[in-house]
Design brief:
With about 140 residues, this protein is mainly α. The protein has helices at about 1-20, 25-55, 60-85, 95-120. The longest helix is centred in the first third of the chain and has 30 residues, at about 25-55. The protein is elongated.
Length: about 140
């Protein structure tokens, strides 16, 4: 999911540069990187869903559910953002830029949840299923667990 994150963050940066400079090329770039992020997120959703369906640990499933729902909400918000930019004069619209800011903030939370799944709970790591333990208890990033 790194490609959509990068595209959405860059789209927000382009929005800020457009507001600062008034150069419409930045608004156009923000629009297209927003679209690319949506496509990338939809492509990343399939492997993410497969990983989610394979979760058996109750904690991992709960965190995975939050991660899934938040990611779907972000994609939906960005789709609305894209539609608003398509409908209105994208150069003057404030709401799409506000949606981008909220979406990028939500991406931080979603990224933390995804990191927690992998590095603490051991999801997608081969040692996660050894002896029925959660692999994160032996993760080098969290040696005290």
């Amino acid at each position: 999911m790194t490609v959509p994150i990068g595209l959405w963050v860059f789209s927000l940066v382009c929005d800020f540069v457009f507001v600062y400079t008034g150069d419409t090329r930045w608004a156009v770039t923000a629009y297209f990187t927003l679209a690319g992020g949506i496509v990338g997120a939809l492509l990343a959703a399939l492997p993410g869903l497969i990983d989610f369906l394979g979760l058996h640990d109750e904690r991992a499933h709960r965190v995975g559910t939050y991660h899934l729902v938040l990611n779907l909400a972000i994609v939906a918000a960005q789709a609305v953002n894209f539609w608003l930019r398509l409908q209105a004069d994208g150069d003057a619209a404030v709401l799409p830029r506000a949606i981008s800011m909220v979406a990028v903030a939500a991406l931080i939370v979603s990224g933390w949840l995804g990191g927690h799944l992998v590095h603490v709970l051991g999801v997608t790591q081969p040692q996660a299923h050894a002896a029925g333990e959660v692999a994160g208890r032996h993760d080098r990033l969290h040696p005290r667990m």
